[in-house]
Structure formats: structure tokens, C-alpha cells
Write a structure and sequence with these properties.
The structure is a single chain. By secondary structure, this protein is mainly alpha-helical. It folds into four domains: 136 residues, HUPs (Rossmann fold), CATH 3.40.50.620; 149 residues, Rossmann fold (3-Layer(aba) Sandwich), CATH 3.40.50; 53 residues; 80 residues, Arc Repressor Mutant, subunit A, CATH 1.10.10.350. The chain is built from 20 helices and twelve strands. The strands form five sheets. The protein has a three-stranded parallel sheet with strand order 1-2-3. Strands 4-5-8 form a three-stranded antiparallel sheet. Strands 6-7 form a two-stranded antiparallel ribbon. Helix 1 links the parallel strand 1 and strand 2. Helix 1 packs across helix 9, helix 5 packs across helix 6 and helix 11 crosses helix 14. The longest helix has 16 residues. The protein binds glutamic acid (GLU) and zinc ion. Zinc ion (ZN) binds next to loops.
Length: 455
């Protein structure tokens, strides 16, 4: 059975690159009718925070990337990691290194002065006697050998072992390092496919060596190129578009973000829009691109606009209410009903949930604007008002007729009526059409708002 995993360190919120990695792992496991596991890599006690762990889990669930089984915590497995290090020591695949920090720093400094790449020189590799001194445990890498990473995305990556240093497995306080923990956990969790960011390619070679020394069956590796910002640089926290939360808070729908991330560095023919079923059905690791992908914010927004337009309205409303409650003010139920029952109007031309929210602002956020009426349009508005009060309830046809008559009688254009009217009714130029505004406000509220301005 295919088993994949997503293995974030809880040292920050879920990054957009991480979200894509999680999505690919999830989709592949579902495509293969396998399992997708979540492993929290929380061995760095100082930087790992429960709050980030919760945020990551919440973000995954918001995105609809659901993992199987219970969360797996790396920190609960430290004993096993240490055991493996000791076994490697026993089999002479690892050794104790007693070099002090000062000694290593000095060597690093000399390498720097000579402009050569520093790697540990293997001083303690062949020590026979044990010393009663603090030590780290290093993997003993066979020199002058070629190690091959058969990468499902990048192709075969070959490396000469002499360019790799005998890396540390256990620190002097007996804590395991990332490469040891990750290898042991991948083995224990029976991971068959490791799908992760490009930045772990060198780690993969190190992890492969641990697997080989332990005689374990290797998983298959897939290293996905990173996501760059719009200007082609590495995406950083400062971009304001680096975490899933950044997208959530401007009102991007999870389904739109998922669709966007799916197509970022992966393709299936010319298809752009994928529902959940389709993305599972068509996903394959073969079609992952080799070059970095560039974030395209306009594309995200236009996909979001597509989903706002086409999503089942009840689902859209659910998303909208949660959005408003989380990021905007607490609205009372009457207003929420008003917004949701007019969603088909308010969602028009909206690219984000925030746009819909802004479009609906006029419903509850009304202020009298004194400067919107001048002498020129006063008569026009008055005329409109005196016709409108004759209506008992909203009647689209009759309102059209009133508009037409006024335009004709005064020899004006529609905007000469529409613009001041829109300002009076909403306090804003950005609002739905006049008819839609009146429909949403209702006749009596419309009359009230006009009255405030003309009396
Ligand atoms: N904790 C690592 C990271 O967040 C995971 C690496 C891996 O997938 O093996 O980058
Ligand atoms: Zn040493």
C-alpha cells in the first residue's frame, strides 16, 4: 500500500509551499487508495510551538487536505532514533567524535580563509579507544563512492561521497538530528513515497545512507521545485502571500487555493479547473514540473472569482459567514440573513469573500452624506422620491419605468440619476446596480435614506 506523509516542523504557520507539498502527498495517496500521514517534527524544543502545530492542522483542514490516522509526533520517538544511532555505532557505521567546538570552529575559519568548502575532516573516524569526554555520533561515510538518488521528479542525482561530511546523528546531549529522526520515522511509518520540497535533496542522500547501512528498503523520493515570488525571488514571510492564512484572511476560498496549488508545478493536459474528485483521479507524480514555479496572485484571484461565481450558493454562504465572523465584525443575525439572501447580487464581480463583504457594506453601514446633493440633481432625486413612495413593495418593472420617465423628462443620461442616487443610498460609488440596491434595502429603507438627504 502507498503511504505518504507530510512532515512539517511546528516553527511557523503553514507555508504556501508546505501546503502544496501536503496537497500532492494527499492526492497521490488518495489516487493510489493508500494513506496520507501527518508527522509533526517537533524535536527542536526551542523553536517548536504548540500554537503553530494547531495552526498547521487547522490550515490543512481548512484546505481540505485531510490526513489519515492519528498525528504522529517525532518527539515521542526519540528513544527509537537513539537506538538506531547506537546500532550504527555497534556495526561500525558510525563513530564517536570528541572534537570540541573550538577545534571545529578553528578548522572552519581556516577553510574560510583559504576559500575552500568546510567539511568535517574525519579526525575521529578511526579512533579505537573510548575517551571519557563529551562526544557526538557521526555517520561513517564510505569515501570515494558514488551515491545515487533516483528522484521521481529530478531524475537521477549522483553524488561523490567525498563531498559529503560525516554528518552528526546524535548531538553531545544525546539528542538525534533531523536526518536521523526523519529516516527512522519514515522507516517506522512504512513510508513508501517521500514527496517534499527541493531543499531536502542533499538530506535525501544522507537519509539514503542511513537506510542502506540499516538494510532497510528505501522509499521512493520526489523533490518538488520550490515556489518563487512574483519577482522570481525565493518566497519570504514578508511577501504577505507566503502562508495559507495570508490567503484565507483576504477571502480566498479553500477550493480555489487548492485548485491553484494543484496547478502550480503540475499539469494534466490543458485542464485548469479541477474538482476534488477530478484532482484525485488525475493526479500523478509523473507530471510534476522540474523548474521552480512562480506565484501568480492575479491567477489565484481569478480562480477564486470563478469559484465564487460557480460554487453552490449554500457552500459559498457558509464560507462567507465563517469569513465575516472570523475577520470582520460581529454582525447580527438579521444582517447575515440579508447578506445571504442576496448573495446572488452581492457576489457579482467579486474576486474574494472580502469583496462580497465590502459590496454588502451599505446594508448595515449607512451614514448620511451631506455633500451628495447639489441643486442640479436635487430636482431629479425629488422626482424619483415622489414616484417611489407610491410603490408598496419592490417592483423591478415599475422602478425601470420611473427611471426611464425621469431620464426622458429631464433630458438626462442614466448616470445623472444613478450616481447621486447610489451615493445617497450607499455612501459609496462601489455598490451593486440601483435596482439591486433598492431590492436589497427594500422600499421603506430606500425611502428613509433618500428622505434624510432631501428634507
Ligand atoms: N520538517 C521538515 C521540513 O519542514 C520536513 C522534511 C521532510 O519532509 O522530510 O522541512
Ligand atoms: Zn572528531
Amino acid at each position: 500500500m502507498v503511504i505518504t506523509r507530510f512532515a512539517p516542523s511546528p516553527t511557523g504557520q503553514l507555508h504556501i509551499g508546505g501546503a502544496r507539498t501536503a496537497l500532492f502527498n494527499y492526492l497521490y495517496s488518495k489516487n493510489q487508495k493508500g494513506k496520507f500521514l501527518l508527522r509533526i517534527e517537533d524535536t527542536d524544543k526551542e523553536r517548536s510551538k504548540k500554537i503553530y502545530e494547531n495552526q498547521i492542522i487547522d490550515s490543512l483542514s481548512w484546505l481540505g487536505v485531510n490526513f489519515d490516522d492519528n498525528v504522529f509526533y517525532q518527539s515521542q520517538n526519540i528513544k527509537k532514533h537513539i537506538e538506531v544511532a547506537n546500532q550504527l555505532l555497534k556495526n561500525n557505521f558510525a563513530y564517536k567524535c570528541y572534537c570540541t567546538q573550538e577545534e571545529l570552529d578553528q578548522k572552519r575559519e581556516i577553510a574560510k580563509q583559504n576559500s575552500v568548502n568546510y567539511i568535517y575532516d574525519g579526525k575521529c573516524r578511526d579512533l579505537i579507544e573510548e575517551k571519557n569526554l563529551p562526544y557526538v555520533v557521526r555517520l561513517k561515510i564510505e569515501k570515494n563512492k558514488k551515491i545515487m538518488l533516483y528522484d521521481g521528479v529530478q531524475g537521477d542525482v549522483e553524488i561523490d561521497t567525498s563531498t559529503l561530511e560525516d554528518f552528526i546523528l546524535l548531538r553531545s546531549d544525546n539528542t538525534p538530528t533531523y536526518n536521523l529522526s526523519a529516516s527512522v520515522d519514515d522507516k517506522l511509518m512504512n513510508i513508501t513515497h517521500v514527496i517534499r520540497g527541493d531543499d531536502h535533496k542533499i538530506n535525501a542522500l544522507k537519509q539514503i545512507m542511513i537506510f542502506q547501512y540499516m538494510g532497510w528498503k528505501l522509499p521512493k523520493y520526489f523533490h518538488i521545485p520550490l515556489i518563487h515570488s512574483e519577482d522570481g525571488k525565493k518566497l519570504s514571510k514578508r511577501d504577505n502571500a507566503s502562508t495559507t492564512e495570508d490567503y484565507k484572511k483576504i477571502g480566498i476560498l479553500p477550493i480555489a487555493l487548492r485548485n491553484y496549488l494543484l496547478r502550480l508545478g503540475w499539469s494534466y493536459k490543458d485542464k485548469e479547473i479541477f474538482n476534488d474528485e477530478e484532482s484525485i483521479k488525475y493526479f500523478s507524480l509523473k507530471n510534476i514540473g522540474k523548474s521552480p514555479s512562480k506565484l501568480d496572485f492575479e491567477r489565484i484571484k481569478s480562480l477564486n472569482e470563478f469559484y465564487i461565481k460557480n460554487l453552490n450558493e449554500n457552500i459559498l454562504i457558509e464560507n462567507l459567514i465563517t469569513y465575516i465572523k472570523t475577520y470582520k465584525k460581529k454582525l447580527d443575525d438579521k444582517i447575515i440573513v440579508n447578506i445571504t439572501s442576496n448573495i446572488n447580487i452581492l457576489k457579482n464581480k467579486s474576486k474574494t469573500l472580502e469583496d462580497i463583504y465590502n459590496n454588502s457594506n451599505f446594508i448595515y453601514d449607512f451614514q448620511k452624506k451631506l455633500d451628495v446633493i447639489n441643486d442640479k440633481n436635487k430636482t431629479i432625486i425629488n422626482e424619483f422620491y415622489s414616484e417611489l413612495v407610491k410603490l408598496k413593495s419592490y417592483d423591478e418593472e415599475k422602478i425601470s419605468q420611473i427611471n426611464q420617465d425621469i431620464i426622458k423628462n429631464n433630458n438626462i443620461k442614466f448616470k445623472d440619476l444613478g450616481q447621486p442616487l447610489r451615493l445617497i443610498l450607499t455612501g459609496s460609488n462601489q455598490a451593486p446596480s440601483i435596482k439591486d440596491i433598492i431590492k436589497i434595502l427594500g422600499i421603506s429603507e430606500t425611502i428613509n435614506r433618500i428622505k434624510l438627504h432631501i428634507s
